[in-house]
Structure formats: C-alpha cells, structure tokens
From TrEMBL, chain A:
Gene3D superfamilies reported in the protein's UniProt record: Trafficking protein particle complex subunit 3
Similarity comment: Belongs to the TRAPP small subunits family. BET3 subfamily.
The name this protein goes by in its record: Trafficking protein particle complex subunit
Job description of the protein: May play a role in vesicular transport from endoplasmic reticulum to Golgi.
Known partners and oligomeric status: Homodimer.
From TrEMBL, chain B:
Role summary: Component of a transport protein particle (TRAPP) complex that may function in specific stages of inter-organelle traffic. Specifically involved in the early development of neural circuitry, likely by controlling the frequency and amplitude of intracellular calcium transients implicated in the regulation of neuron differentiation and survival.
Main location: endoplasmic reticulum
Name listed for the protein in its UniProt record: Trafficking protein particle complex subunit 6B
UniProt entry tagged with the keyword RNA-binding: no
Coiled-coil stretches: none
Stated family: Belongs to the TRAPP small subunits family. BET3 subfamily.
CDD domains: TRAPPC6A_Trs33 (cd14944)
Any Gene Ontology biological process: endoplasmic reticulum to Golgi vesicle-mediated transport
Length: 180, 161
C-alpha cells in the first residue's frame, strides 16, 4: 500500500516534467521558426494569452474563489491559489507601489526552467514569457487590463524570478446591443 | 507539480501554432517537413527525456514485451494518469496500444465529430512513445488511429536492426 502511494506522489512530480519538457521543446521550435528572440518572446506571449483566456474558466470552475474586490485580493489569489493549483509553487507578493496598482511576484523556483540553460546567443530571450501571456489573458477575462513583465529571471543570472504586474484599467463589460 | 490542464492547454496551443506556421514554412523550406512530423519530432525529444527520468531507478527489462508493458503501465500513468486499456501483439514486433479515454481527446468529442482534426492532436503523443522506446533501445515506428473518440489506438512496429 505504501509503495503505491509513493508512486502517486512521484507520478505527480514527474507529471510536471512532461509540462516542463514539452515547454522546452516548444521554445526550441519557436527559436527555429523565428530568427530573433524578440519574435519568440512575442509568440510566447501570444500563445500564453490564448491559454490564459481558457485557463481562467478552468480555474474559476475548480477553485471556489469569488469576485476579488481590489487588486490586492487579486494578487493574493494569483499567488496563493492559482500558482499553487497549476504549478505547485506559491510565489510571494511584494514591492507594492504606493498607489497600490503595481506589485511583484517573487518565484523562488520556476518549474518551467528545470533543466534549462540559456545559450549565449539567446541572451534577450524571455524563456518563461508564456507565463506573462497566461496571466494577461486570464485577467482580461475577468475585466482587468494588466501589464505584465519579467523584472528578474534566474535564467539570466538573477537570484530569483520576479514578475511585475501593473494594473492598467478595468475593462468595461460590453453588453450586446438589444440586451436589457 | 504542474497540473494536467496546463499540459493539455499547452499542447493545444502548440498544435495550433505549428499548423499556423505550415503556410509560411512550405514556401521557405526545400524539403516538406509537415506539421505532423514537427509535432512528432517534439514529442520524440520529450519522450526521450521523460523515459530517462522515469526509469532512473528501474531495473533492466527482460525483453521487448516487458518494455511495452512498462510503456502501457508506468509510462502512461506518468503522462496521462491512467494505464493503457488494452495491449495486443502479434509477437513479431507489432503492438497495438488501445486507450479508451485518451486524455488529449476527451475534450474533443464523444464520437465522430471533428474526426479530421484528431490526427493533429495525436502526433505529439506518437513521438512521446517513439522517443521513450528509442532510449530503451528499441527503434520503432509509431502511428495512431482513431475510430471513435475519445478512444484511440497507437500502433508500434519495432524495427529490426
């Protein structure tokens, strides 16, 4: 019995390797398809956006979080619920701007970059840019326009990975014409 | 500890991207590398890496059938959280692995709808199997066929050296 449970936890851990390795294969393929890193970064962001707009539904269906009342709550939900659910890590929320509209997510470890090293000729590649797109797409579906970028990246020599998120505006819901 | 959903979404995006690139690729490259072969190639590399990790502590395999059983059980559980439902062989190097609820097809349809699209979503997984077998010492050709979703069959033909 104990052996079986050992395999379950192991298989859960290994399952993230499927995602990590697949992501690596994807980035490699993108680098082949496009000549420069900027294009690859853009593509990763776009693909992340497409994933994010769908992922939010999966997230809302599986977690029982209600509507967030302010950006701080949003930040907490992203860090403590969403990241935990999908990537098994809990980043910390820090560096709030005085206006309360900008914060940082600090990831001690980034599962996407297990086994990854950036070669010298790809120094401007933002390897984990998919994450930015995912967050942007997901938040747009809950009526928030947010600017997201990587401030620090362990692949480029920093100690931690830092994602900076800035609230831009609330997106007005457009009701179709003719609806009450 | 990434979630299954993440991999499924990523896979969907990958397929969409590779097929979008198909148009521009056909103009620039001499040889026709099809989208399917690109996806299969990606799966191959991932399969190679994964099998190394999964079999790190596993003792050696007795024979080909033992390897195929491992693929059907441990490997599949690792990837898709379930085993292969049915393994058949002609004992001459051909194996058919049947998965009655293939996780990458469950969101597609429950029957014949979208049948033409299904092969795109199986290419990567065929590569996974081929890559895994390659690093276990078996050269193979892996194809997939779908008659009714979400069930599908992977056919593995071991190539004799």
């Amino acid at each position: 019995m104990s052996r079986q449970s050992n395999r379950t936890t192991e298989s859960k851990k290994m399952n993230s390797e499927l995602f990590t390795l697949t992501y690596g294969a994807l980035v490699t393929q993108l680098c082949k398809d496009y000549e420069n890193d900027e294009e690859v970064n853009k593509q990763l962001d776009k693909m992340g956006y497409n994933i994010g707009v769908r992922l939010i539904e999966d997230f809302l269906a599986r977690s029982s979080v209600g509507r967030c009342h302010d950006f701080r709550e949003t930040a907490d939900v992203i860090a403590k619920v969403a990241f935990k659910m999908y990537l098994g890590i809990t980043p910390s929320v820090t560096n709030w701007s005085p206006a309360g509209d900008e914060f940082s997510l600090i990831l001690e470890s980034n599962p996407l970059v297990d086994f990854v090293e950036l070669p010298d000729n790809h120094s401007t590649l933002v390897y984990s840019n998919l994450l930015c797109g995912v967050l942007r797409g997901a938040l747009e579906m809950v009526q928030m326009a947010v600017d997201i970028r990587f401030a620090q990246d362990t692949l480029r020599g920093d100690n931690v990975t830092e994602i900076r998120m800035k609230f831009i505006k609330r997106i007005e819901e457009n009701l179709p014409a003719g609806d009450e | 500890m990434a979630d299954d959903a993440l991999f499924e979404f990523l896979h969907m995006e990958m397929v969409a991207h590779v097929y979008k690139q198909q148009a521009s690729r056909a103009e620039t490259e001499q040889e026709r590398t099809t989208s399917v072969s690109i996806l299969e190639g990606m799966g191959f590399r991932v399969g190679q890496g994964l099998i190394e990790r999964i079999t790190k502590d596993t003792p050696g395999f007795k024979d080909d059938l033992d390897i195929m059983k491992f693929i059907c059980k441990d490997f599949w559980i690792n990837l898709f959280r379930k085993q292969i439902d049915n393994l058949r062989t002609n004992h001459q190097g051909t194996y058919v692995l049947q998965d009655n609820r293939f996780s990458l097809l469950t969101q597609f349809s429950n029957g014949k709808q979208y049948m033409e699209e299904a092969p795109k979503y199986l290419a990567f997984s065929c590569g996974l199997v081929r890559g895994a077998l390659c690093n276990l010492g078996l050269d193979s050709v892996v194809t997939a066929e779908v008659s009714t979703m979400p069930s599908c069959k992977f056919q593995v033909v071991i190539q004799k050296a």
